[in-house]
Amino acid sequence: MDFGTTVGDAFAYAQEGLVGKWTKWVLLLIATILLGLPLMGYMLKILRGEKPAPEVDNWGTLFVDGIKYLIIVIIYAIPVIIVESLMIGGLMASAMSGNTAATMAAVGGMIVGLIVILILAIIIGLFETVGLVRFARTGSIGEAFNFNAIMATIGKIGWVTYIIALVILIIIVGIIEVICMIIPVIGMLLLFILIPFLTLFAARYICLLYDSAGA
Length: 215
Hints:
This protein has helices at about 5-20, 20-35, 35-45, 60-95, 100-140, 145-155, 160-180, 185-210. By secondary structure, it is mainly alpha-helical.
């Protein structure tokens, strides 16, 4: 996989889909405001491989698909939520006991717990990304959790290649977000305005990454 070509393709896709097409940009901002559900539904259209960038229409379908997208994300997040709940519950119980040693031990356990949560979230993210594309392509929520097929797809991409590709995407989006946030006064507004562009860029990038498996 040529990372530079993939980044360039995703950027050109977003640019062609939005620059000069301000009505579509505004509609995607509205989709973001509506709890982000229509935006999630729109992302699924991109993950299906639609090119050029699809129009923002059929809002009922966008909402329904967005809800399904959210359900998949929540299910994937359950292990992290369970670990977090156990960690916080243990810390609160130790604090309420009034035992200093127990509280200190709980704090140490919390640090370990945070590391475990981070590792768990990374692992889940690797599977969730491909799972969402599988859902977009098949329309079946169950396929988002077909772990054998997900692992087979990642294997065809190459685990190292796949992880590096995702890291590159996170770095690019992260740099843009940081730059916006450090701009005084208008930084957060600018970041909000850029959400449609970043959405198209990221979704197209992931679509190309998935297709590099040669389905």
